[in-house]
Amino acid sequence: MVLRQILVLLLVLATSCSSSSALFGSSTSPPSVTTPDLSSVFSTLSPSLLRNFQSSPLHFPSLLPSPSSLFNLSTLDSLVGTHVSGHTTSRTNGTWLPSPLNPNQLSGLPLQSSHITSALKRNSTISFNTASSLFPSISSLSLSSLSELRYPCNVNVYISPVNDGEESVVPVHTDRQDVLIFQTEGIKKWTVYPRPLIPRTSNNKIKLNPLSRGKAGDVISPLELTSPTSYTLKPGDVLYVPLGFPHHTSTVSRTESIHLTLGLDTVVWGLTLMHLRWACMSFSGLKYDVDMGGVGDEGYWKCMKGIMFEGEEREEDVEKFMRELEPERKDFPSRKEIKEVIRIFQKHKEKIIEVQAKMYTNVNPHDPENIVKAVRGGRDLDMCMAELGTAVKCKAFYEEYMKKVEVADGQLEKMK
Ligand SMILES: *[C@@H]1O[C@H](CO)[C@@H](O)[C@H](O)[C@H]1NC(C)=O
Ligand SMILES: *[C@@H]1O[C@H](CO)[C@@H](O)[C@H](O)[C@H]1NC(C)=O
Ligand SMILES: *[C@@H]1O[C@H](CO)[C@@H](O)[C@H](O)[C@H]1NC(C)=O
Description:
12 strands, globular, binds 2-acetamido-2-deoxy-beta-D-glucopyranose, about 40% helix, four-stranded antiparallel beta sheet, eight-stranded antiparallel beta sheet, 12 helices, alpha+beta, disordered N terminus
C-alpha cells in the first residue's frame, strides 16, 4: 500500500515537475541578463523556515533586494523566437480553461510577442512550469535555494493581468510541496487555511489525497476550512505556504501581478519520513505495507514530513516514529540497519541536489541543447530514484523508475 501510494504520488508529480514540454528552444543569441545575488535571501529566511517548517505559513515582507530584476514583463519577451511552451488560463463561461501560450506550437512555429500581448489583453494568466530551466534569472534563484536550503526545488512562474476586481484566480487547493512565493511585480492576495480534517470513508480509508485537494473535480467545501489568514503580497515579499495547507489567490492589482512559486520537492524525490520508513523495512527484509487510513490525521502528516535538514535525523527518532506508527507491530529493523538507511538517504539527497544544480546551470532557452539538457536532467533524477530502490533492496521501486529512465533514453536518442 505504501509503495503503491509512493509510486502513484510520484507518477502524478513527474508530469508537473519534470515535464519537458516547456523546454523547447530555438537557436538565436542568448539573452543577456544580470542576475541579482540571492543567497542572502535564503540565508535570511532559512532560520524561521526551519522553525516553522510544515507547521505554519510565514510572511517575509520586502525580502527581495530588487524584485523586478528577477522577473518582469520584458523577461517574457526573452522567449520570443523560442519553442518554449507556456500556458494561458482564462475564464470562459465561468470555468478556468488552460490553452497553449503559442497557438502555433504544434505546427512548429516559434513564440511571437503578439501571443504574449494578446494573452494579457484577454485577461489570461500566463504560466510556465519548470521555469528554472527556462529563465536565467530563475535558474539563479533556484541555485541559491539549492545551496542554502539543501532541498530539491522546482519553480513555476505566473503572470496575471491587470484586474480591478477581487476575482479569485485559483480556487482553494492543496499542493504536494512546501512552497515559497516570490512576488516580483504588482500585488496579489493570498489566503491560507490550516490543514482540514482528512476525508475518510465509513471504514476509515483515506478518500481524497490530502496533498491534492481542490483538484481534478474535488472541491474543498467552505465547511472544511477554518481560521483563514490573508496576506497581501507586494513586490519583494516572500510567503511560505506549508505542504497540505489549503490556499487560494486573487489579483487586486492595477498593474500586472507576477509571482514565482518555488516548490521544495520532498515528496517527489523520496525525502519524507514515509519514504524513510519504507526504505528501512525493505532494507531489513520486513513487510513495509501500512494502512495509512488507520494511522490518524496526525500520523498521516508525520509520514509526509520532509526529512533531512542537516543533521536532523537520528536512528532512535526514526525507530520511535516507526513504533508509534504501528504500536502493535513486533518486527523492526535494528538501529544499525536504520543508521545505514539514513546514510543511503543522505547520499541520495546530495545526488538529487547535484543533478538539479547541473540542470539549472547555464540555462539558455535559445540554445537547442537546452531541451536535451533538461530531458537528461529529468532522466538522471529518475535514475537517482532507481538507485535508491536498489540501495534499499526494493526491486519494484527500482523497476518503476527504470521504466521512466528508459522512456527518457528513448527521447534523448531521438534528439540526437
Ligand atoms: C527585467 O528582468 C530581467 C531579468 O529577467 C532583468 O535583466 C532586467 O533588468 C529587468 N528589468 C527591470 C526594469 O527591472
Ligand atoms: C459558452 O457558453 C455559451 C452558451 O452556453 C456557448 O454557446 C459557448 O459556446 C460557450 N463558449 C465556450 C468557449 O465554451
Ligand atoms: C479584463 O479585465 C478588466 C478589469 O477587470 C475589464 O475591465 C476588461 O473588460 C477585461 N477584458 C476582457 C477582454 O475580458
